[in-house]
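Example 3.2
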Amino acid sequence: MEQYRLEIWGEMCPIPLIKAQKKLKTMAIGDMLIMETEHSCTSQGIVVWAKKNKYMIEETEIDNGIWHLELTKTHT
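Structure, written as tokens:
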């Protein structure tokens, strides 16, 4: 399993989601994409999209207003 980090600080949806979708295409099943954001709407948007598309995702608010996302590729 590989871990990848995606820089999405200061970006609002749909840009972070588009970046995540593009990166997922290059990843193998079981790989993890790690993202952090200071925008709750970005975090929520990615979580909703991931669940809808049957990806594993963990969202943690690691500090007041800072969200850490771990998105695991589960299928092609």
